[in-house]
Amino acid sequence: MSKAELMKKCRAVSERAAQTLKWVTEGKLGLLTIALNHLTLGRAALYAAILESPNSDFHFPTSSLDSAVSGLRRAGTLDHLPSGLLTRAWCFFAKATTHKQLNNETQAQASMKSAQEDLDEAWEIAERGPMPLFLADIHLHRVRLFFREDEYPWESPRHDLAEARRLILKHGYLRRMEELEDAERAILRQ
Q1: Residue 95 domain flag
Q2: Cis peptide leading into 130, omega within 30 of 0?
Q3: Are 81 and 125 in contact (CB under 8 A)?
Q4: Is the C-alpha dihedral spanning 85, 15, 75, 173 positive or negative?
Q5: 31-52 and 62-75 helices cross at what angle (nearest 10)?
Q6: Are 126 and 138 in contact (CB under 8 A)?
Q7: What is the pLDDT of residues 134-166, one digit of tens each?
């Protein structure tokens, strides 16, 4: 699929989510529905920002993702909150990467810290759950986002990969196998 086709799909998803959000807010429907629509808008905007160009001035969807996480908290549904935290962590990491490219170390460090905090909070929720599929996702996000950093905030990328593999196989979460294998190729060959 071409970049233009992917961008078109992101726009279509954003338009549907915005329309749904409008209907939901006008009808005073549930907090969860509103939060999930903010999450969809934030994800589509994040994907579009990443697709646009690594050299452009990204406009990251932090407000949509902040609204999503806040709404998921207010809705009191912990089974959805890790999804919002994982997406927002990815957004913070992308912002940190852009700040590094612009030689703005202070902002880069703040964004990296925010990404780590979101991953840690998602971990606490998923571990208490228990939510093993989210634990696998968190291991993958940790590795994907932080493996190139000088100081890895958790045990090690190899440990996170091994744990992700164990959870994916144990729970039949096979839709994550391609992502896991890609991460293993990228990280283990270093």
Answers
A1: no
A2: yes
A3: yes
A4: negative
A5: 160
A6: yes
A7: 999 999 999 999 998 889 999 999 999 999 999
Q: Decide if 78 contacts 126 (C-beta within 8 A).
A: no
Could you list the residue range(s) of the whole structural domain that residue 173 is in? 130-190
- pLDDT single digits (tens) 36-76: 988 998 998 888 888 876 555 556 778 889 999 999 999 98
Give CA 82 to chain center in angstroms: 9
Per-residue tokens: 150:
């000088």
Of 16, 32, 34, 15, nearest to 24 (Cα)?
34
With beta carbons less than 8 A apart as the criterion, state whether 31 and 75 touch: yes
Is residue 13 domain-resident?
A: no
Contact of 84 with 134, CB cutoff 8 Å: no
> Does residue 134 fall inside a structural domain?
yes
